[in-house]
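user: Here is a favour to ask of a fellow structure person. I have my own habits and do not want them to colour yours. Could you put it straight underneath, so I can go through it closely?

assistant:
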Amino acid sequence: MKHYVFIRKFHKSAHWGGCENRVCRYFKDADYSRNRITLMATHDIFTREFSKRGIPVEVASFPLSSENSFIKNFRHMFKLLKVLKPDRVVFVQGSFLDFRLPEFLAGFFITKGHVFSLEVLGAREPSLKTSKRYFKCFSGLALWWYKEMFFLALRGWISKLTLAVGEEVRDRMVNWYHYPKGRVLTVATAIDVETFSRGDEIRHKTRQKYNIPEKDTVIISTARLSGEKCVDRLINAFDQLWMENSRCWLLLVGDGPLRPDLEKLASEKVSFDRIKFLGFKENVADYLRMSDLYVLSSDIEGIATAALEAMASELVCVATKTPGPSEIIQDGVNGYLVEKNRAGVLNGLTKAVALSDKQRNEMASNARKFVLEKHTVIPYRNNAVELLGLGDPRK
């Protein structure tokens, strides 16, 4: 029986999001007659969820190292993994820089090369190469930049496989950070189109619960309330939209470290009584069904599973031009792609609200059709469970 150790790092507080849902889906499909899985995390937000979902995965503590030293960080990770004795290590990278080279190396030596990386968000552009000038004449060699790029690239070379959640996520690692092309694979994302679908009865009941009239326009965002999601730009854009169209509501489904700051921002807006913070919800599909428009206002994204769920629910999506949304949304056909700023989000919302019923239904229908065609069945070669060796080889 092979022992897999998945590692998830939260830098401050921990809140459930798309990355956690994705990993849970992998765990749900794993073959536990042949594999044992341990999830090592800095915060345990998993045990309760695993129990509810019937997932037999052990949860272990992953204390963060307070050291800023290559050797000490290597030793820290090596000692933790040595206790668990894994055959495989999977680094779950919520962002591209969650785990650095020392941690990858520790996993590499413990497992004799069986290290994997799951990349959920698109990598940010490399640092700008700059160098000092000596005697005001001679330019330096920018050795710091080459060192940084080498250390980042080496993670990809020592990994057995790097699994990217989208094509642009993959391309950024290959083109910008020179990961080996043959070992960076895009894994498919499947949406449960039965759960995420239009439901008029649930729509009416949920609207009644929040005293929202049937003819009003409900805008929803389902996202972790953290910095990269840029929910503040959505709140600012909504407030300006509401001044022109007071029959709009904004629902924010999700939790995160910025919730107090965002609630304060919303309280200062003239539209504050139309902005509802609903927190983490297990039945996200019901809230999508009561809505008309979906907004993803992030600075960085992966394949945007939340947007696919909204599209399957026949909502008109407004999303910023980031990896993920750019792969699934054809601007003006099955949604709107907008610039990564308040004006861009406002522009997209204004267009979406102005659609006639016929135009909105056509765009929503195109969105669901895209999901049905591209994101309902996972090909064997793109199945993360199979690529990691967690599936049943007899199937």
Remarks:
- The mean pLDDT is 90.
- The chain is about 40% helix and 15% strand.
